Amino acid sequence: MRSYQSTINSQPFHMLDLQKYSCLGAALRDALERFAGETCLIEADRDREKVRLTYSDFKEVSLPLARALEDAEFDAGDRAAILMTNQSKWLITAYAIFYSGGVLVPLDYKLTAAEQLQLLEHSKAKVLVVEYYLWRAIMQSPAFNEIKTKLVLVSEAPLGAELAGGFRWEDFKRKGAPDFVMRQREDVACIVYSSGTGGRPKGCVLTHENYLEQCRALTAWYPFWPGVRYLSILPTNHAIDFMVGFIGPFVCGACVVHLRTLRPEFVRDAFVRYRITYVSLVPMIVKNLERGLRAKFDELPGWKRAILNRMIRLNKVLTRARPLPRVSRALLPQVHRAFGGELLALITGGAFMEPSSMQFFYDLGIPVVNGYGLTEAGTALTLNDLKPFRADTVGKPLPGVELRVLSPNEEGIGEIAARSKTVMSHYLDDPELTLETIVDGWLMTGDLGRFDKNGHVQLFGRKKNMIVTEGGKNIYPEDIETVFDGLPVKEYCVFAANYVWPQKELGRELLVIVVRLEQGQEFDSSLLQEIEARNRKLPDFKRVGGYVIWEKDFPRTASMKIKRQALAEDMGKTVDREAVVKL
Amino acid sequence: MKTAEETLGEILSLAAAHFKVPREKLHPDEDFFKTLNINSLQTLDLLTKLENHFHVELPDYELQGVSDFRTLAGKIQARL
């Protein structure tokens, strides 16, 4: 077993000393005072700026909401869910919840209405704050009548719109100073769902300590400061954006820019318009930016392309040991101007990032900071410190994070276990799963990796039956199987291909439906159409990518549950991955 | 005003030109993610082209859950 740990040595001088705080609400409250005159939030829709707030303005708009929540008997420890795209009201609402001592439940706006209702019920949220277009879909969902949420606040609803008992967010405010409700470090701050729609909900219960320590660790390596502008594109309900697109910038006096579209041309425009300093992106967007740049390079006349290539080579040599932003900007001014001229790094994580893409950007003088983490661990466990840049690893353990490789094989590869103050308290209402996941204080990540001689972590795959899409979504097969209910076959099961056929690399992730036909049944075109039709009911990122016909009955437990691991092992030994027929 | 079928036809032609595939390869009810082997960002790119062509503005969320040209045409037709 190999283990690595680093510690926090320093923090940016201007930021709040988070060691002194017991809860996020108190830290944010002080940030609003300390940085009162700084801009904290900009919201733009395409090229139209809609909101610009200083920290002082932010306080002015959030406290009336906190007071209204207080009047609505929203008490300490009560849960409030937010179901919104990235926008200013997300952060304003979150602060009001923390100010009131509440527990925040960030929900994924990309889920279906039925899935959102399911998680809402599981979380037992007393309050739901939701955007109108999402609420409209929820109101039309068959499960809507079972909703138990007591108070619903709907943002951006047209005047007079039918809200089924909900209130307009914009009108839900009261005069008078609300009471600040202090929480302790061990109290619950958020319940974040890492998966579990249609299957077993995995509500990660994260404490104030988890977030305060995560923030300390991240800002020790990548500080924010007043003047930094962070472009928030990843959904704020995602652990990464919640931390680096809200808590981190706020406790350092930086500015968050919300862009209410992911249209590539407006994302590019926002970089320039707001002279962005940092942005977190999923691999899909990084690849898109890369494609755009390569296309531009290909359009250059030969002599310009030759000069560009020479500058890239020179930049590569000069930045071998560490990034030199000023040098890179001087060598490749047009590239850097296209990104606003002040970009320090693209932060990526949550999904496999191709090393070639990271290297492409680094060679242009734009470091891609790759990391590794999971919701259960707060945000990130490792991050690349760029000393020097490495495209082949997910970096080193963050300060305060201890990692071990369990039962390593001859190549040093084994399951990664993590211990840190950032690891969640437990799964909501699931002690059994908690016991399986946190063993003697160590979080079993289910990811396979090893340390190299420099203490960098390299990932090689997963022990668990799940995939992570290039859009950063965790998809568990059990969560999507219900869409195939009633499929006219004897039995079926969905697997992550890499779980059945482990490979020593990430990427090439695919969900596969395994079909056991009835005796004498043939896999004909009508069955194929049936599978495809059901598959299309799923969002594109959740779809099954192939099928396998299996000739034996599935192994089952006494209670008739499929023994997935045994089936996967049997399949892995007897069927080749090439037998998967693409859908 | 264009009919729904005209709108659909124009969308198919624009998509074919945008993704550089033969027009006859695209069918109104087929899953365009699969047919064109594209991701959600690439569909957003197409949406911008369609907005410029039809002089409408569609928020990103209108595309959530849309994976065939007929449904997409319906969304655009509703705003014409």
Description:
The complex is a heterodimer of chains A (583) and B (80). Chain A is of the alpha/beta class and 583 residues long. Chain A has a domain at 476-582: ANL, C-terminal domain (GMP Synthetase, Chain A, domain 3, 2-Layer Sandwich), CATH 3.30.300.30. Helix content of chain A is 33%, strand content 23%. In chain A, the strands form six sheets. Chain A has a nine-stranded mixed β-sheet with strand order 3-2-12-11-13-14-15-16-17, with helices on both faces. In chain A, strands 1, 18, 19, 21, 22 and 23 form a six-stranded antiparallel β-sheet that branches. Chain A is globular and about 75 Å long. Chain B is mostly helical. Chain B has helices at 4-19, 32-36, 40-54, 69-77. Chain B is globular and about 30 Å long. Chain A binds chain B through residues 85, 110, 112, 133, 260-265, 284-285, 288, 470-471, 532, 536, 539-541, 583, and chain B through 31, 33-34, 39-42, 44-45, 47-48, 59-61, 64-65, 67.
CATH C-level label of the domain at 476-582 in chain A: Alpha Beta
What's the gyration radius of chain B in Å? 11 Å
Q: Tell me about the biggest sheet of chain B?
A: none
Distance between the termini of chain A: 41 Å
Nearest-integer average pLDDT of chain B = 89
> Considering the protein shown, what is the CATH homologous superfamily of chain B?
ACP-like
Q: What is the number of domains of chain B?
A: 1
- Can you tell me the CATH topology of the domain at 476-582 in chain A? GMP Synthetase, Chain A, domain 3
Task: Report helical residue fraction of chain A.
Answer: 25-40%
Key phrases:
heterodimer; A: 583 residues; alpha/beta; GMP Synthetase, Chain A, domain 3; 9-stranded mixed beta sheet; 6-stranded antiparallel beta sheet; 18 helices; 33% helix; globular; B: 80 residues; mainly alpha; Non-ribosomal Peptide Synthetase Peptidyl Carrier Protein, Chain A; 4 helices
